[in-house]
Amino acid sequence: MLSTDLADLKAYMADNPGAVIEDVARERKVSPRVVIEALPPEMVCIGSGEHFAAAMQDIAAWGEVTLIVHTDDAIFEFTGAIPAGEIGRGHFNLMQPQGLHGHLRHERCAGVAFVERPFMGKSSAFVAFVNADGGIMFKVFVGRDETRALRGDQLARFRQLADRIAA
Length: 167
Prior knowledge:
The chain is of the alpha+beta class. The chain is built from 5 helices and 9 strands. The protein has helices spanning 3-15, 21-28, 32-38, 52-59, 152-165; strands spanning 44-48, 64-70, 75-81, 85-88, 91-94, 102-104, 109-119, 122-131, 136-141. The protein has a 6-stranded antiparallel sheet, with helices on both faces. Strands 4-5-6 form a 3-stranded antiparallel sheet, with helices on one face. Strand 7 and strand 8 (122-131) form a beta hairpin. The chain is globular and about 50 Å long. It starts with a helix and ends with a helix.
């Protein structure tokens, strides 16, 4: 990416921090990781993908969150507790027979991004698991309370995890 293009993207994201990351990436023909990295530095920090399992284990203790998988064809949302998992047979396996379960290709995770930014007029905070191609595997959003504010306990856990992983 040319430095002028990167400067333009950074300016755009500073003016529009709530822009949908995947849309900006598609419009600018860059990876979602590049868009995340273009956010103002006070809104994002990124740690190594080697922390995938540790991050997922921590998130499993947060309670109800929203997990989003955003592709070109669909946006899937799951709201509930993320199950604990373990690494086996080449995958990070979510160990639950019903609800959210599956097998995640943890070795493709190249970064764990922690993003706090305004979105649709409200504060938001999410962990984005970024793959080796710069795409977003999935995002886990801090939950909201009955007033639609971010849950304080989860936000504290989010920030503690960010400090450990992205320090």
